[in-house]
Amino acid sequence: MSAMIDPLLERQRKRVPRARSSNANHQTDLRGSDSVATQRSDGGGNGDDLADEPRSGSRQPWRRRYRRAIGRAILVVTVLLIPAMYSYAIALTGPGSDSAQARSVEWARDHHLGPVIDRFEKWYYAKHQAAVGGTPNPNGLPAVAVAVTPAVTPVTPAAQTAGTAPTGTNPSSATVPIGATTAVQPTVAVSVPESNSAGAPAPLTTPAAVPVPGEGKWSPLGPLVNGHAGAYVSAIRPDNVYTSSMDAVVNFNPKYFSFRAYPGTKIPKPWDRPDYVEPAQQSALVAAFSGGFRLKDSGGGMILGGAEIQQMRNGIATMSIDKNGVPNVGMWGRDMSASSGIDSARQNLPLIVDNSVENPDLATDANRKWGFTGPKNKSAVWRSGAGITADGHLVWVGGPGLTIDSLAQTLIRAGAIRGMQLEINQEWVQLNTYSTNSVGQTNGKRLLPGMQHTGNRWLTEDTRDFVAAFVRSA
Amino acid sequence: MSDDMRPVDIETYRRRRALFVAASLSSLGVLALSVRESVAHPGRTSSLALLAIGILVYVAPFAFIVDRAMRRGTTRMAAVAVVGAGGGLFMATRSVGSFSQVWPVFTMIVTVVALQVISQFIRAGLIPAVATGDRR
After folding, report:
1. Residues of chain B contacting A85 with CB distance shorter than 8 Å
2. Are A331 and A318 in contact (CB under 8 A)?
3. ipTM of this model?
4. I need a labelling partner for A75 at 20 to 30 A (CA). Which of A287, A299, A381, B90 fits?
């Protein structure tokens, strides 16, 4: 082999000056083959043992050293990145049903990349706004879980606090006939099967110029309690611009449903309850919705089971739930305080509705008080909010195509005298409804098909805190 | 068998043994991870899918790398055993969670880095040379 290659090399050397790089590479290749042959015949050695061979300048060793240095640098960087990769892997494989995208963003925020994420989200929201004009997609309308069992066991707030299973049921007053519930909510193309039954709130007035059939009308949600619906759900457009978006509005009556806040794995401990609805309570579970921004980004604090998990701040919008499971939404320090028998309180940004009018700061939001979604928070994206009506009903609003203004306006339209924003982003806006079948298995359903998490979210541990509604005992 | 052939046979034997150790230890890790992941939880990955992913992104690449390193003499049987056992043990002890396919990928990255570090030690002469294969 060596004998065959040598004449070839000689011919090439005569033809081409040694310093030419392109042909020098070719020379190198041939020499490389030669050196292998040399090594074999010598029984060892390496490719650098070519002292008797003319070299193509100093390029070859330089290149080799360069490559080796690059390789070592990559190795060192990789070794240094291993702790970060491990941390990221832990974040990706943690409990809950969050998507990889959401986990990545959360992990970045936890590692001082919040400003970068904010800017990315602002750009993303600007590029992924709701469509202007058009009509709603019938497949995107609210739907609730279908209940099939004849009865459920109501939950008393005391039983929840004690963490024990509810005992006994009074058939005359507390047994709830679920079979009579409404299964499906208003449709656009088809007339509403049932709406505005006795006790339902007044129909919502759509902001769209041309209403679609069923828009703004209420249908019962969840089991009937002693013949009364404890909650009603409706669908309504956010405004007259993003008319292809249809948002859900739910009106809960605390006379029939009790409420309880739960932590998520991201909420600091101590907790007096698990980060999921306890199996013993699931048969009475009607609905659950996500609590609010990450606690560190909420601008406020949290109380859970009477313990202050993060310091509460006066003037911040708060959803509180007292020890009887009755909710309230208002300004901390003005409408509620820690000394009023509160079981839980969750703060999230300033109020967006106060005294039945929109917070005037929403018009400018120069300080980006309610998120970082486009200029002055005007990007039409997925949002959710909660409010309290004059008669103490809890109103939840959520869905696509909502600006901070249209969220406030929808809350006002639904009768809220005070209201707060809960979440932004399709990943986080969620309300599930639940029903328990004849064998005692509880199943959940997303209220809107566009919601990202499973309908069974919150039956097992999850990252974000949430509020659950239960059938109230007599 | 002639004496000329004997060293090659020993090298082949060592390489195959290292390959077997690497493949079996990493497979055990992937298997254990798949079994642990079969418990019901949110975001659960199918055990079969996880097994396939583990083989594709960890077991097979690990085996290829070990085979190449043994041919080049840039690793040792003991190193393969330690790295393989470490990786397998690491995966077998991961807690149940979503996106568990991340762990074979992560283990593979750490394995590559570990084998690279070992090869640098061998090149620097910090680990005594052993005739483990031809050095083309």
Report:
1. 106, 109
2. yes
3. 0.70
4. B90
**pLDDT tens figures, B1-55:** 455 555 557 888 888 999 999 999 999 999 999 998 888 777 778 889 999 999 9
Mutate one of A48, A93, A101 to test the B interface: name it (highest B CB count within 10 A). Answer: A93
With beta carbons less than 8 A apart as the criterion, state whether A152 and A165 touch: no
Q: Which two tokens stand for residue A284?
A: 């009475």
Q: Is the dihedral of CA A200, A202, A208, A212 positive or negative?
A: positive
Q: How far apart are CA B66 and CA B89, in angstroms?
A: 18
Q: Residue A9 and residue A352: Cα distance in Å, rounded?
A: 82
pLDDT at A250: 96
Q: pTM above the 0.80 mark?
A: no
From edge to edge, which strands make up the β-sheet containing A442-446?
A257-262, A466-471, A285-290, A431-436, A442-446
CB contact under 8 A, B97 and A93: yes
CA A297/CA A288 separation, integer angstroms: 22
pLDDT in tens, A165-221: 333 333 333 333 333 333 334 333 222 334 445 678 999 999 999 888 888 999 998
Which token pair is B55?
A: 């083989």
The residue ranges of every structural domain in chain A are 61-127, 138-471
Give the tokens for residue B44: 């659960």
* Residue B135 with chain A: CB contacts under 8 Å: 39, 46
- Residues in chain B with CB shorter than 8 Å from the CB of A456 are 42
Yes or no, beta carbons of A95 and B120 under 8 Å apart:
no
Asked whether the beta carbons of residue A82 and residue B109 sit closer than 8 angstroms, the reply is yes
Model pLDDT, residue A51: 43
